[in-house]
C-alpha cells in the first residue's frame, strides 16, 4: 500500500485494516491498535499525522451539513475529536468501531465486523459471531449489549407500519429492537447471513429444528488478526444546520466571493463607453490599455478563485 513517508514512519510494522479517503490527499487509516489521520499540506495547515488509540470508553458522532466530528472519550485520559467531511463519517466510523470493539475485548481475535448500522439513537453492529447493540446518544460505550450467535435459537422479523421488529430468541428469553422499514432489508440480509454462516445451517428453519432438538450451538469460525468489511450505512444521526462560520463559505453562483466578477463587468462597460465617444489614435491606445488591464484582472480573479476553491475544499475536509 502506497503511503506518505510520514505515515509509514508512524504506522511502522502494524497492518492497516482499513483506509478511508477524506478528500484530496487526506487519509484515515485504521490499524488493530489505533486510528491514524494524515493531512496533506494545504492553505490552512502544514502536513501532519495524528494518532488516536482504540482504548476508548465512549464514541460519539456530531454531524452538521458539511462537517462532522467523531469524538473519542478516554475517560480520565480526556477526549479527542476527529474532524472530517459529513459524507465520510460512516465509512470512517465502521473500521474505528471495529478497532475499539477489538481493543475493549467485545470481539474475539479473528472475529470480523461485518456491518455497522446507525438508526438515530440505535447502533447495531453485526459481526461474524455476535450482534452488538447500543441505545443512546453515543454510538458506543459501556452500556452496549451483545448477543452471541451460539445462544440464538430463533430469529424472526415482524414488519409494521413504521418499522420492522427484529426478534432474537435466546433460550427462554427474547430480545427485540426496531429498524426503519426502508433499511430493515439490508440489516436482515446481513444478520441472517452471518448467523447461518456461524452456526453452519442453510436456513433459519434448519436452525430452529436443530436448536429444538439439541439446544446447543455449533462451533464458530476462528482466525487471527483484525478484519473489517465494507460499511453500507442504513441510517444516520439527524443532520444539524451549519453554524454561521460555515455559512460564510459558499461555492454556488450566489456566493459573495463570486461577486468579485462585478468589477470585470464595470470595466467592460467603461470600454464600451470610451469606444462610443468617437475615433482618434489616442482613443485606440486607451482602449488597448484598458483591454490589457481587464485581461490581467481576469487572470488575477481566476487565480483567486482557484485559491478560494481550494480553501472551501479544505474546510469541507474538516481542517
Number of strands: 16
**CATH class division of the largest domain:** Mainly Beta
CATH architecture label name of the largest domain: Roll
Mean pLDDT: 81
Query: Count the helices. How many?
Result: 7
CA radius of gyration: 28 Å
Quaternary structure type? single chain
Q: What is the CATH homologous superfamily assignment of the largest domain?
A: Pleckstrin-homology domain (PH domain)/Phosphotyrosine-binding domain (PTB)
Low-confidence stretches: 217-224, 230-278
- Measured distance between first and last alpha carbons: 25 Å
- Could you give the order of the helices and strands? HEEEEEEEHEEEEEEEEHHEHHH
> What portion of the residues fall into strands of 2 or more residues?
25-35%
Structural category is alpha+beta
Number of domains: 2
Here the CATH topology of the largest domain equals PH-domain like
Fraction of residues in H or I helices: 25-40%
* Strand order across the largest sheet: 12-10-9-8-16
Categorize the overall geometry: elongated
Describe the largest sheet: 5 strands, mixed
Write up this protein.
This protein has 319 residues and is of the alpha+beta class. It has two domains: 5-228, PH-domain like, CATH 2.30.29; 249-316. 33% of the residues lie in helices and 28% in strands. It has helices spanning 5-11, 89-103, 181-199, 204-213, 244-247, 262-275, 281-316, and strands at 18-21, 27-30, 34-39, 48-53, 58-63, 67-73, 79-85, 112-119, 122-127, 130-135, 140-141, 145-148, 154-159, 164-170, 173-179, 227-228. The chain has a five-stranded mixed β-sheet with strand order 12-10-9-8-16. Strands 1-2-3-4 form a four-stranded antiparallel β-sheet, with helices on both faces. A four-stranded antiparallel β-sheet has the order 7-6-5-11, covered by helices on one side. Helix 6 (262-275) runs antiparallel to helix 7 (281-316). The longest helix has 36 residues, at 281-316. It is elongated, with a radius of gyration of 28 Å. It starts with a helix and ends with a helix. The model is unreliable at 217-224 and 230-278 (pLDDT under 50).
